[in-house]
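Hi D.,

Good news: the full-assembly prediction came through. Inputs first.
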Amino acid sequence: MIASIPSATLLGVRGRPVLVEVHVSNGLPGFTVVGLPDAACREARDRVRAALLSSGLPWPLRRVTVNLAPSGVRKTGAGLDLPIAVGLLVATGELDTAAIAGCGFVGELGLDGTIRSVPGALPLADALTSSAVVVPPACVPEALLVGKPVVRTARSLRELVDALSGRIAWPELRTVSPAGPAQARKVPGATTADQACGQGRAGPLDLADVRGQPMGRLAIEVAAAGGHHLLLSGPPGSGKTMLAERLPSVLPPLDEAQLLETYRVHSAAALPLPPAGERRPPFRAPHHGISAPALVGGGSSWMRPGEVSLATNGVLFLDELGEFPSPLLDLLRQPLEEGVIRVARARATVSFPARFLLVAAMNPCPCGERRGIGSCVCSAAQLARYSRRLSGPLLDRFDLHVAVGRPNVRELLDLVPAESSASVAQRVAKVRELAHRRGVTANAALSSASLDVHAPLTKAARELFERQLCSGALSARGLDRVRRVALTLADLDPSKTAVDEIHVAMALELRAGRAALLGGPGQV
Amino acid sequence: MTPQRLQRLLRGRSAEEVFADLCAPRARLVSRLMHAEQAPGHRNPRTAQIVDTWRRASADTDPALVWERLVASNTVAYRRGSPGYPSRLVDDRAAPEVVFSRGSIAQLDRPCVALVGTRSATHYGSGVAAELGADLSDAGVVVVSGLAAGIDAAAHEGALAPERPAPPVAVVGGGVDVVYPASSSRLWARLELAGGILSEAAPGAAPERWRFPLRNRLIAALAHVVVVVESHKGGGALHTVTAADERGVTVLAVPGSVRSPASEGTNSLIADGCGVARDAADVLAALELACAGSNYALGPRTGPCGQRGFARHSPPAVTARLSPDEHAVLEALEDVATPFERVCGRSGLGLALTAVTLERLATVGLAARSGSGWERSAAGRR
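Then the structure:
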């Protein structure tokens, strides 16, 4: 007897359809899984046997062969437990072939027959070509997100068999998943991993909490409005982290496509999805001890998306940028340029989305006090070594490089509340709207060629650029970057239509931290 | 081997004799060397060990080969007393027994002014050092400095120009072939061509910390006048001042802002009664006094340096034409680097308006970027 059950396995942030074929024949009793299963997959045999027996279903004392087609693709995880069990029941005649027609299955089995959730339910459900999908109860919201016409669930194998054979009605989707996705998903260890990445911190933070810091606030606003990568440098305690954490609060909310992409990546990484209705862009803040696969994605068996992908459509915040090993930082160059990261392993090459806004913070020097000359105790050699840690090509990716200082006492004690995120977000949304009309998501994405069309310079602005270029204060490469920032500033300025001298001067000032970091009167 | 040891070793004997002693069998002369090595008045328990080290080093050295290498690398070595050895050093209390040079150092016989100062110079300090270097060099004065970063480099940059009557000389801590710091490698090469580089350390010697105070004493000994352009409190440039005081060399200091940490050392020097150098004319006046009675002749006064304070007086015409905003921003600036936010807060103008006004002031030469902030530049200083 033979049965074929559609299912799927996870590779990166995409699911791959897998056909689970179960063959039961006479012979020495045995159970073999073929078709490149990984360890978790091979262990399915013992889980399936226990689940069947504890559910009061028969375990055939015959020769059982399970093939996972296509055989050339490595199958990972325990999500194939359920289709194997169902296939076995069909092959032994316990279930009717007609009962499972057009149905795909994904789920892990407990020894008592419970159906447990699996990571990546969203991409897995998406990959299932069948019209109906059966997923674990906790994965229902994710399966619904991809718009499958029929989503079904059962709490246990027994319940599933009864529902498939028509003895009971399918459990109501709502009753099995009363809470939103965040509460429904219970992946062990996810919460701690999440807190480590600073996801929890970016809750209802508001720019109104930031006192003083006019330059820092402007930098955040410009970064959000124009999608410009931002590097904040300043002494410890100057509020760099505080500013960066508030960036998501002024970014425009995610649209449907972005939301789905973000959910897909989070699901594939086995992280809890944000609560339903939350459209705030993700904020990821990995610690500098992070490994390369954790940052850009990868891993030997399960190609897990890295922090750059989890931050897609949102903010990747690298605090203490100077402490990150420089080979790790250079890995960011491809995603910064292309918006995707391709992770190649011997078995597979996976492409992860990685369109994020990069915000980094660092001290201006090892002792952190290089604000005025004289207060810093670092030697010239130390300073040179510190600025060498960041490669030039990476520094070039930052359109905004702002030196922030400690706020003065008067500003800290000032009782006048600063502008709130909500009103900044309104201006940001207007600028993004203008960018959409230019055919890009944000001004930072404008090509050099289109700058002349979209960002005409006034005479005074042109003269200022000429002076900067002639004096060597601005490089040819820096020119376009400054022009894009100046365009964003002009967009933020409702009274101006063209890029004026005032916007160029401000854009130069928003990049001046670069020269300070590289030491001396270097180029902006 | 420190210069003092070398001096004691060579006292009253020729270099050849000492070398022969070092290479000879042990028994014959250890006592003689030990006697020479020990400073009069106290006994050093490590003497035997030190002499031993010398003997080992001498055994591995072939004088002919060393000489060949010197010639091949265009390095000249001068023994004290031999022709070409800087005349100002001959009678010095701590004269080096031998100096090495690249480029030309013959001009050291002419009036020399040392421009010294901090390595972490401000825009103001580097500007003044470069101006002084250029003006003094124009006036036929040899500028001597240490080729370190900051003030030294700026002074050399200023003094290095084609067809200047007096090429500058750098006195360096390590060997003349050991470029340090790496950032001044280009300046180093230019000095080799257009000026001179001098060192008492053997070629190849690393620029170790202890060599720099010794280097500073050479600068003080070579100069007729030492000008400290900028120095932090307790900065290395003050070693040069001490060495100059010991030798009775005139010391001048360039005054700076009382708020600038980089001028703390120089301002204290002035408070202690040291002469003030506001421009090249001040230095030249001091130099004339220092050289009075000698047969040194200064070149003809050319250029504007004869007129007092030419660089410092902001042209009234420029400041008069400033807009109120520009005045406000100029007022908010200091002589030391001021963070942009502070300029903005003081001027009371918005961020963007301050930024554009600063750029405008920079265009007319009244303001300049410095580090992560802005400072008043030469013309804007009052």
